[in-house]
Write a structure and sequence with these properties.
single chain, 562 residues, alpha+beta, Beta-Lactamase, 20 strands, globular
Length: 562
């Protein structure tokens, strides 16, 4: 007979599990080598049940990583039966097509947790490695047309067997990446975080029992699914449609459509992406599990943001897309820049449900995962370096407040890298860093503003790679709000001449004294600009964020003069 848990005990156990994922998240942050993890915090930690269902994610985990974690567990359990999973094993994988990942830089680890010989859980984490090999430094550039060009593909394999590292495998993995010492350090940080979680979970179970923890897992998922379905019931039954486009794929395709038809019946929801473009040659394709994760994130945010991010949310969000389309790609489709497309999925879901849930809708956020990668040889040390960052932008205006400026949005949940870190860690100089004037869409509540960073090499030559979105198509406003500003990449020559670059530039050789301008999109406003409060207009006027022309265009005489 299963033990019964009262609500208070269940809540204590849930928060105990959450504290474990939060502690392992922090441990990974503090012990990682690369700035992308230790500073930008592009990683997640979680606890999964023995059957692979995700139970708890750390508070600061990335929403898109729920897809990678559940995908990893599905692939792991399909390949290794329970009889071939032992104490001391540690699994590693990254491949989107055979191992449940969403792109190759996200390295997934899973450590089975045993208590008195019984498998009780898996301790999992994901970290975005700054490079996993492939044709371009950083493994994220445009111009890649198949997954083989994007880096080392790792199926689900055992990095440790019964506590013993498989050194030949580890050597193979490190041989096929740039800056192997940095990659090794990040792997060690991930391994240590898993082992910390093992100890902490054993301590927690010791306060209760394996049987009680098993019941707690079920109750947590049941409670999550119940709350999610209660939220779906608040949406009037019907069919809701919306479509948007991706700028390009970096290899010739432009204005690539994403179409959504969402059906609501009681507590059931079906998101159907039939009509979306076929998968493209460039690397903006998305695997099905990442599409479902983006849909789940969007609905959770609109219906009940405090719901835990776990399997219970995914189970409510029935999501379909034709095999071979942009949002359900098949091998060997490249997927490195899948985050840009995932951001657009969020916009499409919000757009579809805006009229049904106006208080939960927001103007389109920056809709991008604007990537900048600089690589070369540090003249001071003679060693190679690789600086990778995805920069934030504007968050959309909401029903009761302005959008947020210069922030990571929706499925990424990472940080912008400080100037001091860049100039300390790399032979680069940040000439300027700030918000882009007039980039927030006007409205009753304006959209957030994009970021402008000017950066270049110091005393050496380097290579720049980038990937952008919302460069051709501005983030749209909602309910009469104006669109936010678009992004761009610009190269500044040593003579000061400016040259506009492609949306997804690759292999741009830069000499000492040259710089790159990275401008990220702003966000759309909410409601007509004519309804903006005069006090808010005055705050805009004195903020220095908006030109006189902008204020006059949207607010007329109320905008005043500089």
């Amino acid at each position: 007979m299963k033990p019964a848990l009262d609500p208070i005990t269940l809540e204590i156990m849930f928060n105990g599990l959450r504290s474990i994922t939060d502690e392992t998240y922090i441990a990974l942050t503090r012990s990682a080598y690369s700035t992308n993890i230790k500073e930008r915090r592009d990683h997640s930690t979680a606890i999964c049940a023995p059957d692979g269902r995700l139970i708890v994610q750390a508070e600061n985990s990335l929403p898109i990583h729920i897809a990678s974690m559940t995908g990893l567990m599905d692939s792991l359990l399909a390949k290794f039966g329970l009889e071939d999973i032992h104490e001391g094993d540690l699994f590693v994988a990254n491949d989107p097509h055979v191992a449940g990942g969403t792109h190759l830089p996200d390295i997934n680890l899973a450590l089975p947790i045993f208590v008195e010989g019984t498998l009780v859980a898996f301790m999992c984490n994901i970290a975005h490695h700054a490079d996993v090999g492939g044709m371009a430094p950083g493994s994220m550039a445009g111009g890649m047309s198949e997954i083989y060009q994007e880096g080392l593909r790792i199926p689900v394999v055992k990095l440790f067997r019964r506590g013993e590292v498989q050194q030949d495998l580890f050597d193979l993995m490190l041989l096929n990446v740039r800056l192997p010492e940095e990659r090794q350090g990040d792997y060690y940080a991930q391994i240590a975080a898993c082992r910390l979680g093992d100890r902490r979970l054993a301590e927690l179970i010791g306060k209760y029992s394996v049987a009680e923890m098993t019941v707690a897992f079920e109750e947590i998922l049941t409670r999550t699914e119940r709350r999610m379905r209660d939220g779906v019931r608040t949406i009037p039954d019907g069919v809701y449609e919306f479509e948007d486009v991706m700028d390009d794929d970096g290899l010739g395709a432009v204005d690539i459509p994403i179409k959504l038809r969402m059906t609501i019946e009681g507590d059931r929801l079906h998101a159907d992406f039939t009509g979306t473009a076929p998968q493209v040659q460039g690397n903006i394709n998305v695997t099905m599990n990442a599409t479902q994760a983006a849909v789940a994130y969007s609905l959770k945010g609109m219906l009940d943001p405090d719901i835990p991010n776990n399997q219970g949310v995914l189970d409510v969000c029935e999501t379909t897309a034709p095999a071979g389309c942009l949002l359900n790609c098949v091998a060997p489709a490249p997927v490195a820049a899948r985050a840009n497309t995932s951001q657009r999925i969020v916009d499409v879901v919000i757009g579809a449900l805006a009229n049904a849930l106006p208080d939960a809708a927001v103007g389109a956020a920056n809709g991008a995962n604007t990537t900048a990668v600089f690589s070369g040889t540090d003249p001071a040390t003679g060693l190679g370096y690789l600086y990778l960052e995805t920069l934030g932008g504007g968050f959309g205006g909401r029903n009761d407040r302005d959008g947020t400026d210069g922030i990571q949005v929706h499925i990424t949940n990472t940080s912008n890298l400080p100037i001091e870190v860049i100039e300390t860690e790399y032979p680069l100089r940040v000439e300027s860093y700030g918000l882009i004037e007039d980039s927030g869409g006007a409205g009753r509540y304006r959209g957030g503003m994009g970021i402008r960073r000017v950066i270049g090499p110091v005393g050496h030559e380097c290579i720049f790679n980038g990937a952008g979105e919302r460069f051709r198509h501005q983030p749209w406003g909602i309910f009469g709000g104006a669109s936010g500003g678009s992004g761009r990449f610009v190269r500044i020559g040593a003579d000061g001449a400016e040259e506009g670059l492609e949306i997804k530039p690759a292999g741009i050789a830069m000499a000492d004294g040259e710089r790159i301008i990275v401008e990220t999109p702003g966000a759309g406003g909410y409601g007509p600009a004519a309804e903006r409060d005069t006090a808010d207009i005055e705050a805009d006027r004195t903020s220095g964020k908006f030109s006189t022309e902008y204020l006059r265009e949207y607010y007329g005489s109320a905008g005043g003069d500089d």
